[in-house]
Known about the structure:
The chain is an all-alpha fold. It is about 80% helix and about 0% strand.
Amino acid sequence: LEINPEDSITYNNRGYSHSNLGEYEAALADYNKAIELDPEYYYPYSNRGALYHNTGDYEAALPDYNKAIELDPEDNTTYNARGLLYYIMEDYEAALADYNKAIELAPDDSRAYENRGVLYHTLGNYEAALADYNKAIELDPEDDHPYTNRGILYYNMGDYAAALADYNHSIELDPNDSLAYDNRGIVYYVMEDDEA
Length: 196
């Protein structure tokens, strides 16, 4: 910043680094400065929205995501992030619209498929959820999260063997995935009860 203290991109990037380190006040200050320097630069709005989202301030996150999308309506990541926010706020219709838009803009982004799968699962549309989890896994087979989520779906569908296989695969990919271990334990317990 000593080179060009009026560079909004540098403030945004430093804010992102602060945020990744958990230094939220410093990140917020940098995002605010980036927006002050260039109010038409969408990225700090999206990043500040994510900061608010990740710290539980959903009321502040939504206007920032909206502004980022207004400034750059082709950014799939902000649609996906806003979809997650809407999901948390239980506005499932808006979440679905944002996930659909994120997929339309970037059909190779596995995260939007996984998130939409979680939404479909929540709504009880298991067939659509399964299709989205499968697509997320096809696009990024090294990501453990879709396997865990699909395992939860299989469990809810009563297919314990498939659930167990997904939890095992998730644990292979990430031996620190506590959710997969917890769910695998539940499956073992249920399967043992079924055999008794």
